[in-house]
Amino acid sequence: MKILTQLTDMNNFTPNEKSIASYILTHKELMLHLNIQELAKATYTSHSAINRLTHKLGLSGFKEFSIKLAREFQQDAQNISNIDPNYPFALGESSLQVAKDIAELMKETIEKNFAFMDEASLTEAAHLLDQAKRIFIYALGDSQIRAKSFQNKLIKINKYVVITTE
To answer: CA–CA separation, 164 vs 149, rounded Å?
Structure first.
């Protein structure tokens, strides 16, 4: 899971850790230039409090935190799209251009969702699906098309799947 998402969720954070997380989220652009001493001073906390927070995020320490945060910023900067998902094509565009823009939008969506995945959660989800006797999928509208596709795949491996909106 992304560091910024974990910081925003603040799951099981102490008041000190919430204070540090809030500072990081409101001063993102400064974070790459701060060392642990400067962050501790800015948040009125200690080095150990910052290290406890980084460990809670699944990292070995502040150095790994800084590196991962820089990577997230770089990924976010590279993933800025010129295609508006609400209006992916304009009047007068060729059919080929419309197809290209929609394909690009789909690729970006998949890549952004993939960035949020972590192996432990994916493994746990697969294990839960494997152990389930019945699987219920809730979907409406366009997501129902994806649900039907997922249902079809699970049926092929002998899983009982119900789309509950049907």
So the answer is: 14
What residue type is 79 in one-letter code? N
Delineate the domains of the chain, giving CATH numbers in brackets: 3-78 (1.10.10.10), 82-117 (no CATH), 119-166 (no CATH)
Closest C-alpha to 5, from 120, 127, 112, 143: 112
Specify which residues 161 forms β-bridges with: 135
The one-letter amino acid code at 62 reads F
**Cα–Cα distance for residue pair 107/75, rounded to 1 Å:** 15
Amino acid at 117: M
DSSP conformational letter for 134: E
* Paired strand residues for 47: none
Q: What is the pLDDT of residues 3-32, one digit of tens each?
A: 888 888 888 899 999 999 999 988 887 888
Contact 162, 135 (CB under 8 A): yes
